[in-house]
Amino acid sequence: KLLISFLLAGMGFHASAQRNQAGTPALIPLPVQTSWRADSFQLDAHTALIADAALSDLLNTSIREELGYTLQATGEKRIVFTVDTLSGLPPEGYRLHIDATGVQLTAYSTDGIVHGMATLQQLWHKGKGNVLVLPGTDITDYPRFAYRGMHLDVGRHFFSVDYIKKLIDQLALYKINNFHWHLTDDQGWRIEIKKYPKLQSIAAWRDQTMIGHKKELPHRFDGKKYGGYYTQEQVKEVVAYAAARHINVIPEIEMPGHALAALSAYPELGCTKGPYKAAQFWGVFDDVFCAGNDSTFTFLQDVLDEVIALFPSSYIHLGGDECPKVRWKECPACQQRMKSQHLQNENELQSYFVKRISQYIQSKGRKVIGWDEILEGGLAPGATVMSWRGVEGAVEAAKQQQYVIMTPEDELYFDHYQSLYPEEPVAAGGYTPLSEVYNYDPLHAAGDTALLPYISGIQGQMWSEYLPTTTQADYMIFPRMLALAERAWSPQGTRDYPQFLQRVQQQLPLLQKHNISPSNAWN
Ligand code: TNX
């Protein structure tokens, strides 16, 4: 059976490559099995769309953008969406059949239908007479990993709701099902918390538009006040927009480190009581939330109450990375806490901090995610680890039978340079070309097959220190996010980089249509 499906996948692969040359849109991520037919389907105003209301609305949104009209539920030719738990498909899987008479999309769940719709959007092209032409095909498809994520840091630079929605559209198009929204950092607090108004009036703002490394002062600095935040209404709008596309939004509230913006508004939450200012350059800062002070926990729990009410996500991210311990070492309250809790060192105090907040999040019925530093001093039970500093954290967490999301900086940090051209706009230090993202193999990285069941998936990171504009964000995210999507979804065995590059080339018009300006430094 394995051999047959291998052969089938192989045949589909070759057929698709041939059709690519004939101008058929190439799919990213590559489906598990594809075979092309000789016929095609013409979608026009007389085509019926038979699907439940939410799914009809979603497809009609895209059809309206293309053709200026929407489909009704009656008509001769038919597009039929069927959810069928007995279809033999995995949870997010779908089967798509297109021939001259219509489109049949079958899935185990509505998630699968949404993925099939993304495939439809990549397949169709405008034909003569305001119609969409879809190539005849049989596709069977399902993801390799349940968790496929893309992260955006809005702390270092702020991005509008419109930009976030545009990004969410692209996540849907490439079957990425989690958006990790990094909402707070040293350089800005970006989410409205009604109980703490100074987070809006103070923590959301800093003295400089640009941020860079301290060494780059002063030429990158312009002395203009910079900032912004999302109101709770805007957050709800984004969450609903994503939910309609079956994308989960994971909020990240950073603690105990990367907290300078919050401290600037509420200095009593730091060990030295301030005064503090939101950071104007990037880096890791010594002033962090005070672990000895009970009001720190009260504040964070109040913040999390509002965050949890806004985000239906089962995962809540509490950061946990890069927390220097110098202030805690000099702080009597922190030392007192260590004594009373029988903690040996400041790493254990960080672990106490993370565990205490984790318990709070879990008591609200949610799951906790943290960066891999949450392993230090003892991992909070039930917490999922995002492993960014290499594989050791992942291996350690999986050994403790805890789930891991692979977010390695070498392969999946999109703030790194993507080419060696001297004209590249200034970026963070690393070098992560498209090929490196494409060739990443999370399972190989884990080393030990016994750990594989604990790897939920992979995620791309878009830190924004060097993203002063949305144009620059597009440039860094695309096309690398397409390689991420393929690694997260497609079987590892179908890897073929030159063939992937051809498909990227064929995706460019689609990106352009969505007003995305990708890097051209990849081929
Ligand atoms: C490390 S990765 C950070 C971020 C920076 C990034 C720059 C992680 C959990 N923390 O605060 O933006 O490096 O590449």
In summary, what is this structure?
This protein is an alpha/beta fold. The protein has 18 helices and 21 strands.
Structure description:
There is one protein chain. The protein has two domains: 31-141, Chitobiase/beta-hexosaminidase domain 2-like (Chitobiase, domain 2, 2-Layer Sandwich), CATH 3.30.379; 147-513, TIM Barrel (Alpha-Beta Barrel), CATH 3.20.20.80. Helices cover 37% and strands 20% of the residues. The protein contains 18 helices and 21 strands. The strands form five sheets. Strands 8-9-14-15-16-17-18-21 form an eight-stranded parallel barrel, surrounded by five helices. Strands 1, 2, 3, 4, 5, 6 and 7 form a seven-stranded mixed beta sheet that branches. Strand 2 (48-50), helix 2 (53-67) and strand 3 form a beta-alpha-beta unit. Helix 4 runs parallel beside helix 6 (232-244) and helix 8 packs parallel to helix 11. Ligand TNX is lined by residues 321-322, 371, 388, 413, 415, 428, 463, 465.
Provide the descriptors you would attach to this structure in a database record.
single chain; EC 3.2.1.52; 523 residues; binds ligand TNX; 18 helices; signal; hydrolase; Chitobiase, domain 2; 21 strands; TIM Barrel; 7-stranded mixed sheet; glycosidase; alpha/beta
Rg calc: 24 Å
Shape: globular
Identify the bound ligands. Answer: ligand TNX
Strand order of the largest sheet: 8-9-14-15-16-17-18-21
Low-confidence residue ranges: 1-23
How many distinct folded domains?
2
Q: What is the CATH class designation of the largest domain?
A: Alpha Beta
Helix content: 25-40%
Q: What fold name goes in the CATH topology slot of the largest domain?
A: TIM Barrel
Q: CATH-wise, what's the superfamily of the largest domain?
A: Glycosidases
Annotation, overall tally of beta strands: 21
CATH architecture of the largest domain: Alpha-Beta Barrel
The separation of the N and C termini measures 38 Å
- Strand composition percent: 15-25%
Secondary-structure class: alpha/beta
- Count of helical regions: 18
Domain Glycoside hydrolase family 20 catalytic: 145-491
Keywords: Glycosidase, Hydrolase, Signal
Active site: 322
EC number: 3.2.1.52
